[in-house]
Amino acid sequence: DWTSEAFADSMIAELKEQLGNDKVVLGLSGGVDSSVAAMLIHHAIGKNLYCIFVDNGLLRKNEFEEVLESYKHMGLNVKGVDAKDQFYKALAGVSDPEGKRKEIGKTFIEVFDQEAHAIKDVKWLAQGTIYPDIIESVSVKGPSATIKSHHNVGGLPEKMNLKVVEPLKTLFKDGVRSVGKALEIDQKILGRHPFPGPGLAIRILGDVTPEKVHIIQEVDAIFIGMMKERGLYDDVWQAGSILLPIQSVGVMGDERTYERVVALRAVASVDGMTADWVHLPYEFLSDVSNEIINKVKGVNRVVYDISSKPPATIEWE
Ligand code: XMP
């Protein structure tokens, strides 16, 4: 019978055998999957695992610095790479959701490729692919091609001539979390909500600019911060804030304002395939709304998304 401890032990032994003295490169995202994959491989081969954590400028407020610090605490051999400008440049003027994903995926590969080449004699690319990623990426290639492309699967290894190792590919999210717990990974990493690879770029409807990223980072930090303060964070599967491409009229003192609208989204789900909107307390929503409008310059209206998946998706893009 399956236990996370037994899975971790046998996977570490298997990785030791498979990887030997080879060097392995892995892209950390700050998420649960890549972190757990990294720790399994770290236990198997230690410093021969070279982790790369790219700041794409599309992460949550302060996320890059904080997560990089936790990775170092975990003993990982990790390099942080500031590539914000490269991503912003690639995204300039791109409004189409799939267009954004394509630019981000391409830029990520460029940055990662360059970093990986700097590691002498690297043989393997490790990925935190989990079972549902494989299912979804198969459907991406299907005739309808309607499911969003996930940039963490495919493309990279062929280009870099690397063998691929994916220690989590048989697991669902819950399994990954319990393996992470067995490896004593910090709850701050294990308990975090899923966050899309393209990050805030797909939560900014329309084109992405550093200024818009800044606004939605501030909004999101208030929303997520207050969820944590009020003990709501762990009851929600995923939450985030969306910057809408419209302005609305408001009033401040005697002045008419014409500013941005943000949407808040919080969902309950098991695997992201279906999701229900969460009935967050009115009191909480009201406080969050006031805090956002008072603190974030340029935002004068907050709405709450009450759509479930299907037919809506979790992300707006
Ligand atoms: P949707 O919006 O399709 O999202 O209901 C389901 C889950 O997938 C995440 N998501 C992505 N993750 N790259 C990712 O790595 C993507 O392009 C992408 N699009 C959506 C979303 O955050 C949710 O957890």
Automatic annotation (TrEMBL):
Binding site for ATP: 29-35
EC number: 6.3.5.2
Catalytic activity of the protein: XMP + L-glutamine + ATP + H2O = GMP + L-glutamate + AMP + diphosphate + 2 H(+)
Cellular compartments per GO CC: cytosol
Keywords noted in UniProt: ATP-binding, Glutamine amidotransferase, GMP biosynthesis, Ligase, Nucleotide-binding, Purine biosynthesis
Quaternary structure and partners: Homodimer.
Domain of life from the UniProt record: Bacteria
Keyword flag ATP-binding: yes
Top-level class of the enzyme under EC nomenclature: ligase
One GO MF term: ATP binding
Role according to the record: Catalyzes the synthesis of GMP from XMP.
The GMPS ATP-PPase domain, residue ranges: 2-192
Keyword Ligase attributed: yes
Name under which the protein is recorded: GMP synthase [glutamine-hydrolyzing]
Organism whose genome encodes this protein: Marivirga arenosa
Annotated pathway: Purine metabolism; GMP biosynthesis; GMP from XMP (L-Gln route): step 1/1
